[in-house]
Each structure stands twice: as structure tokens, then as C-alpha cells.
């Protein structure tokens, strides 16, 4: 064989050998992706322990841990109307799938209430799964003079600026709903924000405030006879509290469940997102999690990751329009 031919053949052989030697270098990265997760996952619950969302998400985390093969550790970060989880995702968390937080309507709404928006609710997060909503209601002390929603409105009208109501924070869904109800009835109520719905319910039972408008952490105290439920905000009456009318039955075309889900930092790997979605979806549909939702009367509001992102985008448009309409500002 001519010398040139032998050299060409040698170069071809060396090139092929180089390719074979280079191939194993790609394998660890591919295997690393396939191992997700290989360490515990942090799930931020932006409320104190003991409330309905905390209970549902703790159940979800425990069940998802079995599928993922790693612990999902709940971390409570209460304050700022439930937005500290979102703040952490946008300022400190890496988009590697190991830090997640509850996504709820106060997070979506907040950029439209402040002069300097802290985040874009659609673009600055990776939305993973929609989970469920809340059953909201208005509750008063059982041994007080207010025995119905009509009594509540009449008392507020007769005592302007003296009827107090608690919620889990300023500019939360339930706070804004009460503001709308007050405007429709032309009554003046006094808002008293608490850190969590269970704390607000206890405050009513102890006489610190006259009523609470929040999710059903008040339910045990209603069943125990300390509190009285005046109305619920779901589409239908609650099987657990069939005597309480809905807002629609009371003449308001309002159904308020405030669906929530799970999100991570923006820029997450789609394969990791799908792995998390599938694990949390299995947990959501597990009878054990369904039992927790039943305990707190939480309606199922499931969305896949793509559908949940679309839902957040629609809600962001709605919240922006409502903030302009009601001239809402918190700074």
C-alpha cells in the first residue's frame, strides 16, 4: 500500500479510537439526569404548621417521597401573606428541582399591587402541577348575637367600622372577597390580618375578633360548638356543613376556591419537571391525600404542568385587571 494510503488509514483508525474514548465522558451526565432525585427535595409551605394547606402538602410530600425515592422535606416559611416561598424561589433557589414551593393566588396577585413587581408570575417560575383549592367561609362566635349572614350584614350596617373580621393576610383572596362583599352591601368592616387561618379561627373563639373569613381551619371549632358558620364560598353546599348557604344562594354571583399548586424556579429541566409532576400527581390521587382534602373540604383542582402554566397566565391577567378596577395598592 502506498505511504499516503497507510497514513490515511492510520488517521481514520485514530479518529475512530478517539470517538470511542470520548463516548464514556458523556455517560455520567446522562446517568446523573436519570438519577434525579439523588438527595432530599425541599418543599416550602409559606404558612405556619397546622392549617389546611400545610396538612395537605405534608401528606403530599410524604406520599411523593415513596415514588421519588428521596425525602420531600416540608419547610414552613410564614409571613408576607404567604409569599415568602415565591420570594425564595426567585432570589435564592437553583432551578435543579430540589427546591419547590406552594404557588397560590397571592403570589400571582402581588406584582399588580406594588410599585416594583418582585416577579412575573408566569415567566419567573416553573409551574409543575395544580393541586386543589380551599373551602372558604365566614364564621362567628357561636354564643354571639349574629346567627346568619343576614344578621352579619345588619350588624355591620348598624355599627359601621366596628365589626371586625380576620383573614390570613392582606390582599389574600379571602380578604379581597370580603372587600367586594362589603362594597356590594355598602357596609364598613375592619380587616384584622393574621399569619394563618387556624390562628384567626382561634382568635374568634377567644373573642379577639368578631369573625373570620378564611379556609376551613375553623371547621373543628364549628363542629365543637365554639363557632358558627354563616356561609361557604364553594359552588355547592358543603356535605360536612349542609346548613350553611353558599354565596350564590345568598344572592352573590361568586364562587371562590382559590386553587393552588406547586412551582419551582424558572429554567428547570423539562424531564425533571415531568418526574416531579408524575410523583406529585400520584400522591394527589392517593386515597390518603384524598382523605386529608376531605377532612378540610378542599376541592380537587388538578392541572398538568402545561395546563397549570396556562391557568396561572389566565389568572395573572384577571388579577391585573381586578387590581386596576379596585385601585388596589399595598405599598
Descriptive account of the structure:
With 331 residues, the chain is an alpha/beta fold. The chain folds into two domains: 41-133 and 259-326, D-Maltodextrin-Binding Protein, domain 2 (3-Layer(aba) Sandwich); 136-232, 3-Layer(aba) Sandwich (D-Maltodextrin-Binding Protein, domain 2), CATH 3.40.190. Helices cover 44% and strands 18% of the residues. The protein is built from eleven helices and eleven strands. β6 (163-167), α6 and β7 (189-193) form a beta-alpha-beta unit. α2 runs antiparallel to α10. The termini are far apart. Residues 1-33 have low confidence and may be disordered.
Quickly count the domains: 2
Count the E strands.
Answer: 11
Q: What's the level 1 CATH class of the largest domain?
A: Alpha Beta
Task: Give me the CATH architecture of the largest domain, please.
Answer: 3-Layer(aba) Sandwich
Topology order in helix (H) and strand (E) letters: HEHEHEHEEHEHEHEHEEHHEH
What distance separates the N and C termini?
Answer: 84 Å
| CATH-level-4 superfamily name of the largest domain | Bordetella uptake gene, domain 1
Anisotropy-based shape: globular
Helix tally? Answer: 11
Low-confidence stretches: 1-33
Largest sheet: 6 strands, mixed
Helix content: 40-55%
* Share of residues in strands: 15-25%
Largest sheet strand order: 2-1-3-10-4-11
What integer value in Å does the Rg equal? 25 Å
Helical/strand content category: alpha/beta
Pfam families: TctC (PF03401)
Protein name: Tripartite tricarboxylate transporter substrate binding protein
Family: Belongs to the UPF0065 (bug) family.
Keywords: Signal
